[in-house]
Amino acid sequence: MRFVWAVVAFVIAAAMIGAGIAQRTVFQGPSEATESIQTDGATAYTLIDGAVLGSLPGAQSLRVEGDGEVFVSYGRTTDMQAWLADVPYTAVTLGAEDAVQTALVPASADTAATEAAGTRTPVGSDLWLDEYQQTSSLSTTLQLPADMSVLVASDGIAPAPSNITVTWPIDNATPWAGPLIAGGAIALLAGIVLYILGIRHVRRSRRPRRKGLPLPVTEPISIADADAAEKGVISASPARRGRGALGPGRRALVAVPALGLSAALFAGCSADAWPQFGASETPSPTPSVIVPEGQFPPAVTENQAERIVSRIATTVAEADSSLDAAVAETRLAGPALAERQTNYTLRAALPDRPALPAIPAEPAQIILPQTTGTWPRTVMMVVESAEIDAPTTSIMMMTQEDPWADYRVSYIGNLEASTNLPELAAPYVGATQVPPDSSFLVMPPDQVAAAYADLINNGQNSPSWGAFDTANDLLLPAIEDNKRKRTDELNQTGQGTAEISFSATAGPAEPIALATLDTGAIVAVNVYESDTAKPTNADAVIKLDNNPAVKALTGVDQSATGFTTTYTDQIFFYVPSQGSDDKIRLLGYRSSLLEAKVSP
Fold first, then answer.
1. Which of 53, 232, 327, 566 could pair with 319 in a Cys bridge, judged by C-beta atoms 3.0 to 4.6 Å apart?
2. How many angstroms separate the Cα of 435 from the Cα of each of 57, 299, 444, 515, 587?
3. Average pLDDT over residues 37-58
């Protein structure tokens, strides 16, 4: 009976182990799915729609092969289509029954723009969320949502690489292969044990048995055996020879091949050959953010904004080092550019003239992008400098004029440590840009600069005095101190033969305003402060012995008509919503010498 059960165990073991091995070999499906995209190479750009990349679940492994440079970037589909609007490109989309298809999309912009695009490179655009560039071939793994696409190009002039492959992983795990092989090994071991027990039982049954009384009849003794014994011949019975041939050591070796096979099978089982009973991690809940229906997505992501400000900081640092205003203009605009142009002029003439503070690249404390689907686009950032000796926190407004332009900083100021910013939307939600003439604020953004300039000129006599939080304003005392300093200097050098007057006006730059969560707005404006020094005696002149900066800007060292010096203020305000009891509050500013000229 033991042999029967041993055979049954062997059959079960063979079936289970065979089934487990079959799951890991002949019955195991493919580990990935691949889609090859072939284009005719007629255009310089190929745009792979997000629906193609998301046609199968899982991360997308993209491989692009070409003859020269291979460039790949990804971003929002609408942004990429806008960037490609002035050139023809190949669009890769999903057609009927989810079949991948290619089509030529002609240029939709005017001819002049299309001709200009012939020299444009896709490398380094601020629209891309990320980009890659290699020679001959490029491989990367992505996991993009449906509203993002991938751009494939060479250098923007040569045809785009035509050999593109997208691969998705397929879950081909065999969770029962491991248990089947393990169960088969156990059944095999049980069969071996039963088989050994069966053999042992048979051998015991063949041994001679001692009989009880009465004693058996005495039989004659074989003379041949006795003679052989006397001659030293030892004979062995067949039974004894059998036991020697299949001794305990030999029986132990019977199980070795089977156990070795089972161990080899276990070693080949990876984690996906076993059931996973562990509970999946449940993501922790996050606060709900209500996005208004129909609202556009934010202009940039957090990583995108950090990369943009890093590029701006690098470019401006290069311009500061070489005093190259043309380089600075690629990343600066408006008041932020104007102050640096003047600084470069002064530093070229005055070697000891200090440079303006560098634009910090990180860490970014606040990112507030505008929600929009068109251009221009604006992003507000608050970045803290990494300088240990003199750390500063800068607030800036960056603007992108069109899809092909880089973001440029138009306003930049310093925040005081005690500044409390209003509550702002999360970066992934963004904020709407408030129109310059908005009536939903206590003061329209395009009137804030003129109102503050009147406050500088007339103080408490200004009609705008009650609209501003002057008690916590740090710029007004600084302006008054500068007025007293300039007056004292003139009185000491002019000895009563000169006079100085001060005036403030709204600067020419357009205000930029982004909404806060309490329906107020952060408004950046430009204010000009001018002082004019004139002689009061017809025989007197104004000399610039103690003012090398004005001398460097005007190119003269004295004037009988006097000099006018202008400073530019980049000021950031919090403007409350209409009906609020709060006042307009200064958040940050920067004042710099802008120009000097001889008075008429």
1. 327
2. 43, 17, 8, 10, 20
3. 89
Confirm if 534 and 570 have CB atoms less than 8 A apart: no
Environment class of residue 142 by beta-carbon count within 10 Å: exposed (0-12), middle (13-18) or buried (19+)?
A: middle
Q: Is the pLDDT of residue 305 over 80?
A: yes
Q: How far is CA 223 from CA 226, 227, 228, 229, in A?
A: 5, 6, 8, 10
Residue 595: which domain range? 434-600
Query: What is the spatial distance between Cα 482 and Cα 457, in angstroms, rounded to a whole number?
Result: 13
* pLDDT per residue as tens digits for the range 568-589: 999 999 999 999 999 999 999 9
Q: Which token pair is 456?
A: 């500088």
Identify the CA nearest to 60 among candidates 160, 136, 162, 150.
150
Distance from C-alpha of 178 to C-alpha of 21, rounded to nearest angstrom = 9
CA angle 271, 274, 278 (to 5 degrees): 85
Whether 147 and 89 map to the same domain: the answer is yes
Q: Pseudo-torsion of CA 417, 423, 426, 432, nearest 10°?
A: -110
Handedness of CA 89, 92, 94, 96 (dihedral sign): positive
In a domain, 280, yes or no: no
pLDDT value for 198 = 77
Q: Of 402, 432, 462, which closes a domain?
A: 432
Cβ count within 10 A of residue 270: 12
In a domain, 318, yes or no: yes
Helix axes 302-322, 334-349, angle to 10 degrees: 30
Strands 393-400 and 558-559: unpaired
Question: Cis before residue 436, ω within 30 degrees of 0?
Answer: no
Residue 5's pLDDT is: 81
Same domain, 118 and 176: no
Which value, to the nearest 10 degrees, does the dihedral of the CA atoms of residues 249, 250, 252, 254 take? 170
The stretch 555-575 carries a mean pLDDT of 94
Domain tally, the chain: 4
Report cis status (omega within 30 of 0) of the bond before 508: no
pLDDT band for position 232 (50/70/90)?
very low
Residue 469 CB: number of other CB atoms within 10 A?
13
Enter the DSSP assignment of 207.
S
User: Mapping DSSP to helix (H, G, I), strand (E, B) and coil, where does residue 74 land?
Assistant: strand
Considering only CA atoms, which of 570, 534, 565 is closest in space to residue 550?
565
Q: How confident is the model at residue 244 (pLDDT cuts 50, 70, 90)?
A: very low
pTM: 0.78
End-to-end CA distance of the chain: 125
Residues 407 and 355 in one domain: yes
Instruction: Say if residue 163 is in the same domain as residue 183.
Output: no
Closest CA to 298 of 423, 403, 429, 406: 429
